[in-house]
Structure formats: C-alpha cells, structure tokens
Amino acid sequence: MRRSRTIVFLAAAALGLSVLVWSQGRKGGKKPAGAEQELSPAMGAAVRSISAERMREHVRILASDQMEGRGTGQKGGDAAAEYIAAQFAQLGLEPAGESGGYLQKVPLIGLTTLPETTFALVPAQGAAMDLTRLEDYVVMDESQQTHATVDADLVFVGYGIEAPEFGWNDYKDQDVRGKVLLMLVNEPPSDDVRFFGGEALTYYGRWTYKYEQATRKGAVGAILIHKTEMASYGWNVVRSSWSGERSRLRADGKPLLKAASWVQLEVARKALSAAGQELDALMERARSRSFRPVPLALRLKAHVVTRVRPFASSNVLGMVKGSDARLKQEAVLYTAHYDHLGIHEGQEGDNIYNGAVDNATGCAVVLELARAFAEAREKPRRSILFAAVTAEEQGLLGSEYLGLHPPIPAARIALNLNFDSVAPRGEPEQVQVVGSERTSLFPVVQATAQEFGLEIVPDSNPTAGHFYRSDHFSLARVGVPAFSVNAGLQYKGRTLEWSKAMRDEYTAKRYHQPGDEYSDEMDFTAGQVMARFGLALGWKAATLRQGVSWRPGDEFEAARNASQRALKAPAR
Fold it and tell me: What gap in Å lies between CA 436 and CA 550, rounded to an integer?
C-alpha cells in the first residue's frame, strides 16, 4: 500500500526530531591517525558529528516504495523534493530557491515513445528489417513533437567526434544534413593521456555528445551501436533507462534530432551485412585519424509516436551564510541528485526503481553535511550552498539548469563537490576525487586525504567516463571548479577481489534495475567517511583567501574566465 504525501512528511518530521547517537571517529570509535591535525575546533566538531545512522534513515525513506522510485515529473519525485526541502527547513537553512522558498522550478518536457512507433532499417536491395522496440532498439524524438517521420539514408561516421585539439575529425567536412548518422559509442582507444585522456573517457565518448554533435551537423537522426565493453554497461541498462518517460529541458524551437536511438550490436551487424558492409571492418577503420564517413546502402524508415507532457520538476536549494562580510557573497556548493527512474507502468513484477544506492546515498550525504554546517558553532568565511538536483538520470538536466540559473553568479561559486552512488559496503580506505587534480585545490585535497588516512586512487573504471556522467560536470561546463567525491574499492577487512565482485554484481543486477533497494544489511560507514572528508575539504575551500581555479589550459578554464569577466562587466 502506498502512503500519502502527508505520511512522508510525518516521517521527515520524526527523523528531524529524533535524538541519534553519533560515534567518535570512524566505525568502532577509532579515529584515523592525524585526522584532525589541520582541523579548526569548530570544523573538527562538525566532522565528528557526521552520523552513518542518520544517513541510513534518509536512505530508508528516500528509497522506500512510498517514494515510488523518485521519478522525474512523477508523484514520487515531487515527494522526494518536498522531503528534502522539509529537512532543509528543520535545519534552519536559508532558502536559496525561488520566491523565498527552497525549490527552484526546472521547466521540462516529458517524452514517452509509444508502442505505435515503427523503426525499420531498409537496405538498397533486400527485405526491410523491422525492429522490435526495447529488444532491438530504443528511440526518442528529441524535437518534442507528437509525431515524427524519418526516411533518410544512413552514413557511418565512426565515433562521430570532431576534436581539433586531438587532430581528430570523423566528419571530414562531409555534408550530413538530412541524414541519419550511425556511430560507435565511446572514443578512439588510447594509452596516451595526451590523446583523448588515455584510458579515461572524455566527453567526446559520451552518448550525449554524439547526439549534440549530430544535431550541430544538421542530421535528422543518430543511431548509436551498443557494445557492452564500449558503453561500460549492458543492453539491460539502455532498455530500462529508455523504456519509460524521458525528459528534456524545453527546446524553445531549437533544431533537434527526430530520432535519437541505440541499436543492439548484432542488429547493426546484420543490417550492415545486408548493405554490403562488415561491421568489424568499419570499426577497425574508425580507429584511424584517416577515417572518412562511409555512406551506406541503407535507409532508416521510422515513424516515432510520442506522448509529450510539459511539466516542471524542482531542484532543492538551501544555504548556510558565511562569516566573512565580503567572502560570504561567494559559496562552496554541495550537490547530489535525488531522482531515479520512478515507476514503469505495465512492467510485470516489481516495477518500482527505488534507487537506494543511486542516489539516495548521495542525498543522505548532502543532508548530513547540511545538518553539520547548520549546527556548527562557527561558520567558514564563504557561504555553503546545498543543492539536491532533479533529472540527473535524464541527462544531468537539473544540474544543467542550476548551472545556467544559479542562486548566486557562477563566478562566485568557489567549488562544487558532488556525491553520487556512495556504495554502502563498509569502511573505505581509499577515496576517488577524479578531476580534483585539474584544479588549484588539489594540494588541499591531497593533504586532507592524508589527514583522514585515505589513499587517493584513480577512477577504478576510467573507460566509463564518470567525470562526464555526474552532476558536477554541469557546473564545470559553466566554469565552476567541480568534481565528485566517492570511495575507492579498498574497504577495511575486505579483499580487493571482494570489492570488485560486489561492484560488478551491482552493475549487472541492480544498477538502473528494481533491485537497487534499501536493505538493513547496508553499512553506511562509507557515506560517513566520505561526508567527513567532504566536509573538511569544503570547509577549507570556503576559508581560503584566494578562490579555487582550474589549472591553466584545462578545458573549463575559458568558461571560468568568461564568467568572471561577465561578473565584472558594468551593467548596461
């Protein structure tokens, strides 16, 4: 039975009024050596106050069936936003949303591809391949119309990347206007960090970039070929992510793709064979700088039928004012997305995508940080902003809107620390802060990790491109120094093999599946440690005399400089 929103608020009130016992230091009362060497008394007390059990209660509520999977634009998503806003209010945070409240409305369009949709790959000679939605392909009409017809030739464009800084251009100035582009996910393989980041995926490898670039080139459609090793997740993730309503920021008349699609690897292989091409040979050619687009004897004939639903979702914003008369105009921003995939109507069995790890855990971290800063006896010089953002699962939409419409100018946001999917598996001995090395704060990050007895480790799965897949990226795009904080794979008392097995099991069976549910067996020590580390790091950044910057030559440095120039420009 589903509870009413009133009952959810009663649970929120009960949580806010509960007296919970917090432990000293890490799990078991043991503090890591040197954990407080650089901490002021106020900051040290705030760090120690972070409680794993308070986080557990937040996750239990946010991931409950009553929250209905926190779907964007669904009742459960709105209830989650209101729950977080109620927590901010109980903590006494200053509202940083619209009209003196905690909510920032995000205008969205919900797009549901309907069963009447047809999608066929038609070779110049031979029978058409009529594909089955969700089994063979997924598609969305990004133009936000109820009906869209596509009848156009396909062109294979390799990875679909145009990156002049790497001397790479898959388009070679070929006119692809009005075409449908068939392309590979990911990017050219490299071991050289100077070439597409080596093993680490850059934004050029993300599926969102592929669609954006196809749109810029005037294509009417883009089809990504799914291969598990290249996408870093199986077809089941694509299917579950695209089977319900998907959201977009309102287009306002901008040209967009009529068919943004993925197809299964073997579907692409069969269609190319019918068109006289061999997929493996094309993939090999695509690895070379000399690759040129390949027009195919193949057409896409599709009629995409869409239910279009305009609606607004909400980011939730609160603030703790800084102590310095001048620097309190600036802020350190903590973020986590609260949305997940909601309820998939018509799906047999469990159809609630609860999203316990992804990302009730990150929300719990941010809520504990908000409480610790709000209750701290002293405040850092700069203000502290907290944002629980919507529509991350739809393509970082809530954070994109926040970056474009921040509560204070982006140039005055000193740093963004983001928390996403903090696995509740025990006490971590490592921390991942991928992207921090690109900022002037990195020496502080290193010193803070040492103080907390944490080893800084690189991304455990660099080919997945996590830096470009979470909400800090939206803030980086507008120039804000930003990165995510998460545990590494090494946990106290556990082998690395155990940790990898747990990660792989979660990715295969729970990630973006109904199985991502809360369990009493979850150990939220990881969230506690990451929150304590993140609190100390953010507090230090909020106290620095000079703000944080991107390293010279970084891809986001120009955006930072532009935002600062705009702030200094005289009003017209």
Answer: 9
Let me know how many helices (H) and strands (E) the chain has, helices first: 16, 22
* Whole-number pLDDT of residue 200: 80
Residue 119 domain boundaries = 111-308
**572 band by pLDDT with thresholds 50, 70 and 90:** low
CA distance 229 to 464: 9
Start-to-end C-alpha separation, the chain: 57
Does residue 208 share a domain with residue 177? yes
- What pLDDT shows up at residue 6? 39
What's the pLDDT at 559? 96
Burial of 352 (0-12, 13-18, 19+ CB in 10 A): buried
Q: Residue 386: name the closest of 399, 359, 367, 403 by CA.
A: 367
Nearest to 522 by CA among 282, 293, 395, 361: 361
Q: β-pairing, 259-264 with 221-226? A: parallel
Amino acid (1-letter code) at residue 215:
T
Backbone angles phi, psi at 255, to 5 degrees: -65, 135
302 within domain boundaries = yes
For residue 334, give the CATH number of its domain. 3.40.630.10
Query: Is residue 103 domain-resident?
Result: no
Bridge-based pairing state of the strands 331-337 and 383-389: parallel
Answer with the one of 308, 331, 358 that is the final residue of a domain.
308
Domain boundary among 244, 273, 308: 308
* 279 and 341 co-located in one domain: no
Give per-residue pLDDT as tens, 241-275.
898 888 899 876 678 999 999 999 999 999 999 99
Tens digit of each residue's pLDDT (9 = 90 or more) over 269-328: 999 999 999 999 999 999 999 999 999 999 999 999 999 999 999 999 999 999 999 999
pLDDT in tens, 510-535: 999 999 999 999 999 999 999 999 99
What does the buried/exposed string (b/e) look like for 298-320 if buried means 16 or more CB atoms within 10 Å of the residue's CB? bbbebebbbeeeeeebbbbbbbb
